[in-house]
Protein 1
Amino acid sequence: MEKTLKVASSSLDPLTNSTRSGMIAIGVCGTISLFSAVSSFLFFTYRILYWPGLSSQAPARRQVFMLIYNLFIADIIQASSFVISFWWISQNKLIGPSLVCDTQGVLIQIGDVASGLWALAIAIHTFFSIVKQKTVSHRTFVILLVILWAIIMILATVGPIRAKDNFFAPAGAWCWVSEEYHAERLYLHYIWIFISEIGSVILYTSTLCHLYFLINTGTPRPFGPHLARSYSRNAKACSASRTIVMRCSCHMVMYIFAYLGLTLPLAAGRAMAMVNREPSIEFFIAAGTLIACSGFVDVVLYVGTRNLLATNCVTRESIDMGNGNGTQPLVEGSKNRCSSNTSSGMMMEEANDHKYESCESMLLSVNTEVVSVTLRDSHEGNFNRISWPI
């Protein structure tokens, strides 16, 4: 005999005009994010599987690439949950518990937590690679990826398993954890969102401070007449390095504000609801529309910022051009298999893949097989710009 579940008091039947309009906005934004994330995911998959020279080495070992790849998977799951809004619109109601309601709730639970934790993972990797100049081995990195996905799945399934039938119910303009489970909302969802937000801000801010410290303490200075000629060349090199750092710093600031702007309103609204100061449904609709844009924004930020000037390894050596002993500016990656440039005396090595997947990839190449560039003194003191078309 089939068990009949009691309809949650938060169900809407029929939908109000404002809720219906809000669901349309959420569904449209979710569809755009889904299309963007799926397109990027498929293209990255194509690169791994079919591009010569990439499937065996570069993508598998480029850790930032793989972190962004997993972030797109999280964005696909999250965006799919908001596309379900069109189902509720077609039915002119939002009711739960039900199969569709449970499906939407599970997808939101997985997608929100996963996107936050993968964004945090990118921030952690950026911090350790740039500030600490350290990365883990490929084997350890893969194990950490599996562990992180296992944590995400445990957080998404432990609640429904314990509550059995009525864990998910209408919560505003979509289905999510029922308001009866305040504690589960906190420790299975929002505590991880807040950790991701706070952690990302701290890590990116620390990385920015490190980069600005390198800039402010790396000004070239001539220490004698015999260095007059090289000073001009080194000043140009230092200026180019500073330009790179400033551009990447701007993108890091964009990552911070984009993530906070998209996730903080909804998280704050739910937190207010837990202390009996629940905002209006219009607030949740607006906040839901923002978070439904996450997939599209991630694609724009993490894919659209990778075509940058390819001077790698933001370290003291790449910014401090004049230390009084005629040291040549050096910017290099983890492996040096260089070939000469006959006209300018510039030495450069290009690894298997001529592409940066993000601003971080450019900065992190000190420990990955991306591109290795060695700058030597030349008579002209010119810099070659390297652009990697996709």
Note: The longest helix spans residues 228-274.
Protein 2
Amino acid sequence: MFPERSLMKRFLGRHVAGAMVFVAFCVQFLVVTCSMGFPAFQDFGEWIYQARVVAGILAGEEPHVGTLITYPVPYFLPQALLSLCELIFGAVGGSTVFLFIHAAAAAWVSDLLVVRRALPPVMTACVLAICVLGGSQYWNGYVGSYWGMVIIVGYLAVSDRNATRWPVVMAFALATFFTHGIIFGCWGLVAGVRALTFRRIRDLIVGVVPAMALVLWYFLKSNEAKGRETGYESITHFVEYRGYTLAKSGGYQNIIASSVGDHQIAPWLFYGGAILNFLFAVLLVVLVVLSLVSWSTLWRTSRWQLLALVSLGAIAAIFPPYFLGIVNPGERVVPTLIVVLILMWPDMVGTRVERAEGIVRKVLCLLLTIGLCATVVSASLAPRKVAQGGGRPSEVSKEILLTSAFGHRLDQFREKVDAARAGDLNQPLAWTTSILVEGK
């Protein structure tokens, strides 16, 4: 009687995961843009400016701040896409298009993963949107990390038979290399255990040769790849740092503007969100433990996923706080660990911990959803934070580390965005881990 309604119902039934992921990103984008006047996702402001410089170079302008590099770098794909968008639509318009392209890509790979891996759509979409494809890395403006996770989720949606063939390995190796170095390493580990499980080592070796050649080229040419590493001061420092890293993957994000965060303007929101995040971290560890308890069953049904889970967990734990110019690289490993854990959900059916695992999974998704709602509230309070802060730059001192926990400074690079809007291409670069090198 109403064929169009039936068609829409069938469409939503098939794409509920993708629709949820897309809506989650749109809500976050809209609340931030309406509150701040531009897509103010911490480091994203600097990426907007650098992309505007690249767009200027492509348009024939001569910015004095930098020139294009002549060797491969891991951030190439997201910055090239952002630069192209800004070349066509301008600084703010192009960055908006860029974020919506990411939201659409994230929705697409989420649908692929759910359908091809027979995963529960609602819970999978919740975890993917809030702490795998989005979450802390999204609010930090780590464009390479969250685009890299889109590629990894897409790779995990490919069947084991096809994913271990050398052309597919080569394509994903190059794609992940050109997004982020740590993401490339995570993909390499997953691809390695997958190839080992299905005895496709030759395909793996052939497939990764071009990407490894680019890695060698990058290390030989780039000073950023030779950065120092720092270790942990004590066992207590290690436990605290790793626990906080896991908690940062939760749903709550403390939105800071003009040095004012939730702790100053809404303490109930800050402490409630922090509790949600630490509960999430505990439940995430519980899910991993339950998977390991069921290792005898999973060894038959999810062997490579189990190997990848253990390996990623070990790497995330031993990474130092600072490595090769990257702050807290272990934080970039956690999303891959989580999505590998998701892949084992269907195979937990029939295990002795099935009931407990199902309950923990539902509570974890509930915590993530509440945390995301708290983040939206925190972002909507940004105008009040700016007014209370008197427009001061967002500088977080060591004395107020507590108030900056789970924090993301929306106006950190506001001046760079204003410069990009005005066409001022002579501002100094905040970092050079991109396709630009300082100097003319």
Note: DSSP finds 21 helices and six strands in the chain.
Protein 3
Amino acid sequence: MEVINYKDISSDNWLFGKVKEGLHDDISFARAEMVEGISTAHFHKNTVEYYLILEGNGILRTQKIDGEEVVETELEEGVLVRIDKNETHQTDSKKGLVLETISIPAWTEEDENESEVNLFKNRNS
């Protein structure tokens, strides 16, 4: 058994906010404090991600790599979203968005693939 207290883990600054990570075997957990604005669209070839929204709100847009239509999901406290392998995803953090990500198998930098598609390019909001 391994126990980790998030209070004891230092935050890394990423482009989209601060991230705390733990438990990197077959599954990983990361808490992200998103900065307001639009993140970089990306996808994972090997990882399924779950986003559990803890605080704040925003919008998540997803699109399968094969070019299916863009799906928009409102993010608010309590929402749990599954993002499949090869599904481009991008968030627009509106206010204090804090989320827990669960990645199966564990997240790796090599599996983080930037997308050429901007899912918010033609938004009407």
Note: The two ends are 46 Å apart (CA to CA).
